[in-house]
Every structure is written in C-alpha cells, then in structure tokens.
Write a structure and sequence with these properties.
This protein is mainly alpha-helical and 83 residues long. It is 71% helix and 0% strand.
Length: 83
C-alpha cells in the first residue's frame, strides 16, 4: 500500500506537475498586444529611445499592472512602429 502511494506521488511530481506547468505557461502567452491598454505618452517617449527600453517596460508595468512578458511585447511592438 505504501509502495503504491509512493509510486503515485513520484508519478505526480515527475510527470503531471511539469506538464501542468508547461500548460500554464502557454496559457499566459495568449494575450495579444492589440488587446492590451495603449501606452501613455510618457511610455512612448521612453520607448522612442532604444537605450531606455527597460525604463519604458518598467513604466508600462507600473501604469497597467501587467506582467513583464506583456509589457515587453507592447514596448517592442511600439519600438517596431506598431500601436
């Protein structure tokens, strides 16, 4: 009985937990840039200077409360001429 419990526990740790983590990570990446709030004028000014990219990402995150990935995608889109 204890052996079966140990096998199931290990199976959960080494198979199902990593699969769940991968699925969860993919689910977060489904946000489209055009669905996120438009950057403010301050963020646009920061993004206009490539050396201030990190500052622009930081400011966008503070203004919107979104995560690093979403903010990075918005700023990179803005720097590439989008939005």
């Amino acid at each position: 009985m204890q052996k079966m419990f140990l096998v199931l526990l290990l199976l959960g740790l080494f198979v199902f937990l990593p699969l769940w983590a991968v699925q969860r990570r993919r689910a977060r990446r489904t946000v489209r840039v055009d669905e996120l709030p438009a950057p403010s004028e301050k963020v646009r000014r920061l993004a206009a200077d490539p050396s201030r990219k990190i500052d622009a990402i930081r400011e966008y995150r503070q203004e919107t409360g979104f995560g690093l990935l979403e903010a990075k995608e918005v700023i990179e889109s803005l720097m590439a001429g989008g939005r």
